Amino acid sequence: MTHPLESRYSRQSRFAPLGPDGQKRIRAASVAVIGCGALGTVEAEILVRAGVGKLRIIDRDFVEWSNLQRQFLFEESDASEGLPKAVAAARRLARVNSEVALEPFVADLTPANIEELFEGVGLILDGTDNFEARFLVNDYAISSGTPWIYAAAVGSYGLKLAIVPGRTACLRCVYPDPPAGSQPTCETEGVLGPITAAIAALATGDALKLLALGPESVAARLTTIDIWSGEIRQTSPPAHDSECPCCAHREFVHLTGQRRAPISLCGRNAVQIHERFRPVDLTELARRLAPLATIRANDFAVRASIDPYELTVFPDGRAIIKGTTDPAVARSLYARYVGM
């Protein structure tokens, strides 16, 4: 049974600051969530339930059992099948709201594909887990004039910041360089589901304001929360750093770089390899590896368990090698079992 829009979204549009006109703008919007983990799953579900017109879900990874504690869209069957997170999320969200156009992309965000992945998008929400990806998104957002919302969480602590090009500080105004030294990760420090949900909810609150009321509606404040201590803080970063290499001097070094080097995945005891420029025949790869490894395969990836490592290979040639954080070891395994 199809319900009229005014009924489905009535409680939202009755909220006076948003109103029916704001709801119409939300329905006409196209939004991307980059990273569909603990933050991204909550962001995506709130946006879909709010009735955003089009949602693009971009994630390079697959569902694992350890995700289920805090990544709200996923089920045990998704982990058992090793489904890509973007695909599993889109399947679930299609059952939540069939009126939203969902576009899942199983992809690693790079300078080479960022224009394609964000084409036609008017707002970007951050669900990533590393500053390399965030600086790349920031470069794209400033260069294209696209608002985006930075968000992060680990342990019981999280933060978010709405970034509106030309109006607020950009990420490199706040962090000129990636934080130095070893940083806490979900693997080393753990993470509580309530903090990821809280930060994602605040980030999506900013998103709804931006979509419904425009860029002037969002306060340029960095919000931090610790749900264990109960501490909540808001600080106002400088509106604009006149010496910022990104938004002041428009030097988009992350956007113009051609990163293809192996990278260690945050808190995963894993390395991502993305050095091929041709597609992989997954059926043929599974056949070749079957005598050498325990294989699980579907339309989206081949997973080969070769003790003590696990290789997950995607159709674009990208692979995640679990069981090492050494790029040299990961590259050697990739060359041995997949080929260069």
Q: Outline of this structure?
A:
Helices cover 35% and strands 20% of the residues. The protein has helices at 5-8, 10-13, 19-27, 38-50, 76-81, 85-96, 114-117, 131-144, 171-174, 186-189, 193-213, 253-256, 282-289, 327-337; strands at residues 30-34, 54-59, 101-106, 123-126, 148-154, 157-163, 222-226, 231-235, 263-264, 270-273, 294-297, 302-306, 309-313, 319-322. Strand 9 (263-264) and strand 10 form a beta hairpin.
Structure, described:
There is one protein chain. This protein is of the alpha/beta class. The protein has two domains: 5-256, NAD(P)-binding Rossmann-like Domain (Rossmann fold); 263-337, TATA-Binding Protein (2-Layer Sandwich). Helix content is 35%, strand content 20%. It is built from 14 helices and 14 strands. The chain has an eight-stranded mixed sheet with strand order 3-2-1-4-5-6-7-8, with helices on both faces. It has a six-stranded antiparallel sheet with strand order 9-10-14-13-12-11, with helices on one face. Helix 3 (19-27) crosses helix 11 (193-213) and helix 4 packs across helix 11. It starts with a helix and ends with a helix.
Fraction of residues in helices?
25-40%
String of helices and strands: HHHEHEHHEHEHEEHHHEEHEEHEEEEH
User: What is the beta-strand fraction?
Assistant: 15-25%
The appropriate CATH architecture of the largest domain is 3-Layer(aba) Sandwich
The strand order across the widest sheet is: 3-2-1-4-5-6-7-8
Q: How many strand segments?
A: 14
Overall tally of structural domains:
2
pLDDT under 50 segments (min length 5)? none
How many separate helices?
A: 14
Overall pLDDT confidence: 89
Give Rg in angstroms: 20 Å
Q: Determine the CATH superfamily of the largest domain.
A: NAD(P)-binding Rossmann-like Domain
Task: Kindly report how far apart the N and C termini lie.
Answer: 52 Å
Q: Major beta sheet, specifics?
A: 8 strands, mixed
